[in-house]
Amino acid sequence: FSPSHAETETRLYHNIIEVTSTHCTSNGGVFSSLLIFWKFALVAAGCYFSYVTRNLSSKLVESKRMFAAINQIACVSVLTGLVMFAGVNMHVKVMFLALGVVICVVGSTMLVMLPKILHKGDV
C-alpha cells in the first residue's frame, strides 16, 4: 500500500488476536459528488417521465401509481439527504439511511402492487 493518505492501525482484540488494518482516506469529493448527481438525475428523470405519462388512457392506469411511487422516492430521498448532510453522528445517519431505503422500497412496491392484489378478481 502506498497511497498518499494511507493509515495503518493495529488493534488487539480480547487479548488474543492482533489485527492490522490499512485504509485510505481522501480529501476530494469528486466521486461522491458525481455519484450524488447521478442518483439525483435518475430520480429527476423518473419524476419527469411519470409526470409526462400521467394523462394516459385508463388502460394504463398503472402510470399514475408509478407517478406516486417515484414522487414518494424523491421526497424520502430529499429528507434522507438532508439528514446525511446535517451535523449528526454516524449512528443517526446510518439509521436514517436504512429507514429511508426501507420506506422507499416497501412504499413504492405497495403503491404499485397493492391495487393489483386487491383487485385481482376484477379482470
UniProtKB/TrEMBL annotation:
Full protein name: G-protein coupled receptors family 3 profile domain-containing protein
A cellular component term, taken from the record's GO annotations: membrane
Source domain of life: Eukaryota
Pfam families: 7tm_3
Keyword line: Membrane, Transmembrane, Transmembrane helix
Membrane topology of this protein: Multi-pass membrane protein
Organism: Fibrocapsa japonica
Residue intervals of the G-protein coupled receptors family 3 profile domain: 1-117
GO terms for MF: G protein-coupled receptor activity
Spans through the membrane: 36-54, 66-88, 94-114
Entry's localization field: Membrane
